[in-house]
Amino acid sequence: MLESALGLFGIILAKRTNHTILRDISAIIKPSRMTLLLGPPSSGKTTLLLALAGMLDQSLKVKGEITYNGYNFNEFVPQKTFLTTLKRFRCGRQDLFLKACAMEGDESSIITDYILKILGLDVCKDTLVGNEMMRGISGGQKKRVTSGEMIVGPAKFLLMDEISTGLDSSTTLQIVRCMQQIAHFTHSTVFMSLLQPDPETFNLFDDVILLSEGQIVYQGPREHVLHFFQSCGFQCPERKGTADFLQEVTSKKDQEQYWADSTEPYRYVSVTEFATLFKAFNVGLQLEDDLKLAYDKSQCHKSALVFKKCTIPKMQLLKTSFDKEWLLLKRTSFVYIFKAIQLIIVAFTVSTVFLRTTLDVSYDDGPLYIGAIIFSIIINMFNGFAELSLTIARLPVFYKHRDLLFYPAWAFTLPSCLLRIPISVVESVIWTVTVYYTIGYAPETSRFFKQMLMIFLIQQMASGVFRLIGGVCRSMIVAHTGGALVLFIVFLLSGFILPLDEIPKWWNWGHWISPLSYGFKAMTINEMLSPRGRTILLCVAVLDNVDVDSESYWYWIGAACLLGFTILFNILFTFSLMYLNPLGKPQAIISEEAAKEQEPNQGDQITMSKRHSSSNTRELEKQQVSSQHSPKKTGIKRGMILPFLPLSMSFDKVNYYVDMPKEMKSQGVTEHRLQLLREVTGVFRPGVLTALMGVSGAGKTTLMDVLAGRKTGGYIEGDIRISGFPEKQETFARIQ
Q1: Domain ranges of the chain
Q2: Is the pTM of this model over 0.70?
């Protein structure tokens, strides 16, 4: 952040250069066809998909034009027209609630259930995705959830980036076949990038775009791609997959093996030469002719593109947002139950510490009441601290929904604030009922309810300020540092740590903008101006000691200010959701050698400023381990001297169980435990490379975690041995 601020003044700390990502990209993606985007890593596939989706980072320099049915990006709403999945997992919960084409009164539809069945997600449709702290679905199922989110939506243009990563070949084939049917039957347009598709998966596509070094090498029907490379002198072997051949034929290290022109010696054909040859190929010539023809906008169906950002009535949108928030509130109900229990324990403790305090004897008893009031303010202030982590945890999903124009920021803020008001009322009642008469506050009923009102307003203000800190900081690390700094300053200037007359004049403004100062004044006045057995002079003296005005109207001023701060903080939180983006997105680092090898910019291109790596990022020197003395006798084996003793691992009839999820019990499952591994037996030997294979969700990761001793929950049965000795995690952890 500091470096970005200095950059506004022209001060650049890191060495930078312009790096071309895409160069002279021209193509046409047609409807009712499924197009495959192929290319080696770092070829620019993700950047191309981001450009087509209108989601490129603002720091990138873009030249060229992208149109949909003749319309530019500024003439329609691309977020509503097509959907994009770009190497992104759902980090929250499996919740198709907002996107399902649901019938009235039902949370799902035939379309949603059909897609769940195709993707193999019907077995976990009511299961939370999970995270680092919560057990959820498998990694492959997470990828399929992301694909399912796109399929169930109404969009007719789907951009999908390497959805096969982490999936087995059969699942990938099943998903691509589903996408093929959607493209052909619903006249949708599917543009999908895959890294290494199987021949069966490759043959399902209608068109192919081959991208390498930021340039298009081929774009056209799948049937003609091999003919193009044959015209260039390269032949795909019979038993070689076409997709693998296409990605290797443009590589400098793999190209020579495919040279098939016996009349001429082999020479390396660069990507730029391939791109030039394609323009002279019949498919390239046809593409050039098609690009010259302007699209007739009158032929565009009115429902093909979306021209309005708000396609749902505001009341219906608000109702849906309230239903979603209520669902999430029930899922996190344990947090609020724990907060209530915590509040009861603390209230009981403070009641016994300040048991039956009186102010009838002398002036010295006044600070006891002030101390009890200050402690009540602090406890109820930090009672809203849970909103910080809950808000930050939900931000990634919100940013995704916001960028896709699911709903505006106010539709997220309003339900989250209003639905927590009853919870705050219950917590305020719990605190006030427990501590008020036990401590010995003023016995008047009106003052009892006035203090309860102040506790409620302090809790609401605290929830608002912690939501604001979470929305601005967007990271737990930043929130715990910068946010804590702000809170400490607010506490310091609130008037109960240091009275107002003791605060330096240049810090007085901080006292009047501190919400806690108004809460402290209001609660102190409410208690000290009670006439019960006290002289007015004694009460006024106590108020003067803490520099609080003795006028009764300050109570209502404090209540109004706390309400105003609550509204202000929630409005600022809404603005932070509207205008701030997720943290991160660091720019790539390249070596100076790679930057020097870059070709000059030409044509339509996308350029990005990238940092040079320091000399420490150069390739590490290769280390060779060899024997110091050459063997002189025959029969002595030469090789590497291992500095450790090779070990083998054997496991016999390993079973692994977890407690049955509540969702499955609600569906009628009577068992108490869910078995994830069943009678697994095997052996791993030194010097033998073993491949653990299985379909997505088969239990591969679970087995590896069980063998490594990394499972902290569940029930493990079976015999696991290391070189014949029983596995002990205390010693095994040092060698794995």
Answers
A1: 314-579, 649-726
A2: yes
* SS3 assignment, position 699: coil
Q: Within 13 Å and on the Cβ side, how many CA atoms surround 121?
A: 31
Classify 227 as helix, strand or coil. Answer: helix
Mean pLDDT across the chain? 82
**Which DSSP string do the residues of 33-95 spell out, in sequence order?**
-EEEEE--TTSSHHHHHHHHHT---TTSEE-S---BTTB-GGGS-HHHHEEEEES----S---
Sign of CA dihedral 268, 271, 273, 275: positive
Q: By the 8 A CB rule, do 570 and 413 touch?
A: yes
User: Angle at Cα 575 formed by Cα 574 and Cα 580, nearest 5°?
Assistant: 110
Amino acid at 249: V
Say which amino acid occupies 110: I
What does the block give as tokens for 723? 């070189």
Task: Give the Cα separation of 273 and 228 in Å (integer).
Answer: 13
d(CA 529, CA 550) in angstroms, rounded, equals 8
Tens-digit pLDDT profile for residues 518-531: 999 999 998 888 77
Contacts of residue 726, Cβ cutoff 8 Å, sequence gap at least 6: 719, 720
Give residue 85's pLDDT.
Answer: 55
User: Is 22 exposed, middle or buried, given 0-12, 13-18 or 19+ CB atoms closer than 10 A?
Assistant: buried
Q: Cα(191)–Cα(160) distance, rounded to whole angstroms?
A: 6
What does the alpha-carbon distance between residue 162 and residue 146 come to, in Å, rounded to a whole number? 11
pLDDT tens, residue by residue, 11-58: 777 677 778 889 889 999 988 899 999 998 888 899 999 898 888 887
